[in-house]
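Figure 6 in text form: structure in, sequence out.
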């Protein structure tokens, strides 16, 4: 059995790009209104991934802490902005970015460091070949759960603000008046990763496992790494969602237990 890596050529990528061109043509013919978006997304994907590939090749050769930290900081910053971009009711910029960055730090960065130091035991622990892909997978997955949780909490609280205020007037504590909404938002944030874990290996073969198998790794070793990823992503998402939604819930009320959306949302909301 030949386990050598099969390298893709430019022609191979062009063949797959033809599928995107076919989809763009079909969507244009059906007047779906997404042809331009598909075109821009395909171009961005190609350019961004090629640039990342070139950067990572250089970083992997250097294997120095400051380069790994710099790339991690950029990834965390972009992820924090992406969490804000998905909100229907816009959080105040500085405050919103701060809690988004904190969420990413809790859910992804700290857990990545733990996995590198304790589980993978890379030498050195910041080895870019392990640290950057691991952090990227955690950020990409936990970002979605945290964004969903924040959006559900703020949206539902805004829609039910009259009910919350009535409960406050009846003498309930602020945390009690919004407890059910907070719990539903936490569940909403965690459902996607729970579904992904439940379907892994039966409905779908997760990305990291598939990539390692295509690269020639033994399937059992690929499975071990995928289990590591699934557990760390789930833990990160859960911890991040719970911590950040608790912070936002507290921010919704002032010291006199009054509902204060003006402390949380932009005026245009």
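Output sequence:
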């Amino acid at each position: 059995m030949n386990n050598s890596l099969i390298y893709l050529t430019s022609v191979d990528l062009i063949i797959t790009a033809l599928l995107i061109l076919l989809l763009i043509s079909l969507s244009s013919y059906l007047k779906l209104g997404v042809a331009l978006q598909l075109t821009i997304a395909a171009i961005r994907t190609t350019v961004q991934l090629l640039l990342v590939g070139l950067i990572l090749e250089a970083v992997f050769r250097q294997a120095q802490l400051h380069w790994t930290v710099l790339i991690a900081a950029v990834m965390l910053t972009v992820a924090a902005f992406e969490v804000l971009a998905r909100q229907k009711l816009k959080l105040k910029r500085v405050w919103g970015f701060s809690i988004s960055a904190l969420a990413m730090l809790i859910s992804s960065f700290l857990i990545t460091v733990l996995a590198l130091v304790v589980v993978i035991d890379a030498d050195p622990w910041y080895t870019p070949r392990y640290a950057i892909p691991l952090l990227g997978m955690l950020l990409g997955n936990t970002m979605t759960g945290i964004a969903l949780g924040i959006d559900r909490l703020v949206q539902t609280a805004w829609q039910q603000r009259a009910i919350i205020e009535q409960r406050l007037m009846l003498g309930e504590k602020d945390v009690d008046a919004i407890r059910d909404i907070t719990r539903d938002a936490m569940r909403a944030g965690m459902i996607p990763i729970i579904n992904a874990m439940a379907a892994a290996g039966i409905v779908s073969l997760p990305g990291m496992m598939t990539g390692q198998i295509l690269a020639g790794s033994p399937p059992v070793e690929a499975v071990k790494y995928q289990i590591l990823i699934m557990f760390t992503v789930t833990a990160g998402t859960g911890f991040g969602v719970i911590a950040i939604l608790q912070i936002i819930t507290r921010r919704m009320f002032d010291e006199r237990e009054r509902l204060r959306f003006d402390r949380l949302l932009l005026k245009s909301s």
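Caption detail: DSSP finds ten helices and no strands in the chain.
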